[in-house]
Amino acid sequence: MESFLNAGVRDDQIARANKAIFGNDGFRRNQRDAIEATLKGQDVFVLMPTGGGKSLCYQLPAVLSPGITIVVSPLLSLIQDQVTSLVRNQPVGIPAAFLSSQTLAKLKKAIWRDLHRPVPTLKLLYVTPERLAASDSLIQVLQSLHQRKMLARFVVDEAHCVSSWGHDFRPDYHKLGNLKDLFPTVPMMALTATAPQKVIENVKKVLKIPRATIFSMSFNRTNLAFEVIEKDPEEGKALEALFKYIKTKYDNSVVGIVYCMTKQQSEDVANYLFDRGILADFYHAGQSSSDRELVQDAWQRGEIKVVCATIAYGMGIDKPDVRYVIHYAVAKCVEGYYQEAGRAGRDGNPSRCTIFYSRRDVVKMKSIINMPKKGNNAKSRAVHMEKLEKMMDYCEDRTSCRRQYLVGYFGQTFNRKDCNKTCDNCKRVIAH
Questions:
Q1: CB 335 within 8 A of CB 196
Q2: CB 311 within 8 A of CB 339
Q3: Phi/psi at 410 (nearest 5 deg)?
Q4: In what residue span(s) does the Helicase ATP-binding domain sit (predicted)?
């Protein structure tokens, strides 16, 4: 990998590194442009639907650039999974680590020593926004790296968390705007799968990257079909309907994800399906990193076909041949739903996104939104309630094209005639 690590990266080096290190024969739309822009020192905003290949937009430049790329990511569980994936990367492992309150003292010392070397070995260092906001010593290390010209760039993953208008606002993310004050010459890359224009502009303002180059893909995932099914309010009947739906539509070799509202529900659903012959297991942020790893590995090997995950923790799930995503509980907003549904069909083959919808789940979601927690003030609750209403509109509308609704939500246009009966409403309207 060392042969790629020099300043003034040439075009052929980008393609060679993509093949030699990441095993990719080419680039997806906008990937290369975003990579070239950040390598030139520009601030960049990458807006790509789930499965669009956002991670490569900063991981490849991290390998090609002298110094360390600092990646801010919201979930410790996701960070752990990503670092493991990078270190185990084939054909070449990538030096990556994370710093958190859970990092073992011995490992923390090793990371600290590496950061103080004239030329650190690490290429990517992942941190949570909370860690960055609370650690003066980490800021001092970053300043030292910067003075040595070893601070390559900042990456803000899941950047919608920066905005109070975003569907997953986190107060410590809001403090990331300080990075531009401290390191005005260090390029920044913000990435998200789902953000309406209002959120994009707010993120740019908060992060102080007003002139960031935006790389955006179409939100129309043509290989996905969409439908909403009325969910029985009685839990036993709802579970039975879910089982029958999966069993009727898919054989046991087909891979799927079932999103649930709570950790307990994800375990209950997985156990119910498993007891009836479906190779299911659960996956949520309450598990240890090693337990999640076991599920991930079993899923990748095909020993598990269905993963039941919490809505709050779906970001780490990654498998290209997922043929269906079922929301057994309503998502709290359209952005979150589309990000989760978008984990289906990453390989480009036809896949289905289904919601089991009930007003009872909406009531539960409203109580979750109203739960007292850090940063959940009246304004935040109002924003979340407004977003939930939009999700309800999507679920309860039985005539409008679902694809048109989703694409339109993100400020893009779509002609209903092009749906070709790939949503239940268009099928129903055409049938009548």
A1: yes
A2: no
A3: -95, 15
A4: 35-213
Task: Count other C-beta atoms under 10 Å from residue 325's C-beta.
Answer: 26
Helix (H, G, I), strand (E, B) or coil at 209: coil
Query: Residue 370 and residue 361: Cα distance in Å, rounded?
Result: 14
Higher pLDDT, 261 or 371: 261
Task: Give the predicted TM-score (pTM) of the model.
Answer: 0.80
To the nearest whole number, what is the mean pLDDT of the chain? 90
- Quick: pLDDT tens for 63-91: 999 999 999 998 777 788 789 889 988 78
Domains of the chain with CATH codes: 2-216 (3.40.50.300), 224-396 (3.40.50.300)
Among candidate residues 97, 88, 132, 26, the one with its CA nearest the CA of residue 35: 26
Among left, alpha and beta (phi > 0; psi -120 to 50; other), residue 9 is beta
259-312 pLDDT per residue, tens: 999 999 999 999 999 999 999 999 988 888 788 889 888 988 899 999 999 875
127-176 residue pLDDT tens:
999 888 888 899 999 999 999 999 999 999 999 988 876 667 777 888 89
Maximum pairwise Cα distance, the chain: 71
Query: Which pLDDT score, from 0 to 100, does residue 5 have?
Result: 41
Decide if pLDDT at 315 tops 60.
no
Q: Which helix (H) or strand (E) holds 292?
A: helix 289-301
The CA distance from 132 to 309, in Å, is 28
Provide the pLDDT for residue 3.
Answer: 40
Q: Using CA atoms, how far apart are residues 174 and 178, in angstroms rounded to an integer?
A: 9
How big is the chain by its Cα radius of gyration, in Å? 22
Closest residue by Cα to residue 353 from 226, 175, 187, 240 = 226
Which residues, in sequence order, are bridge partners of residue 282? 308
Query: Is the bond preceding 91 in cis, omega lying within 30 degrees of 0?
Result: yes
Instruction: Give CA separation, 55 vs 103, 318, 323, in Å.
Output: 23, 12, 22
Q: Give 125's strand partners.
A: 70, 97
Contact 81, 296 (CB under 8 A): yes
Q: Report which of 323, 305, 306 is spatially closest to residue 223, judged by C-alpha positions.
A: 323
Q: How many CA atoms lie within 13 A of 184 on its CB side?
A: 1
d(CA 24, CA 48): 18
- 171, two tokens: 């107060």
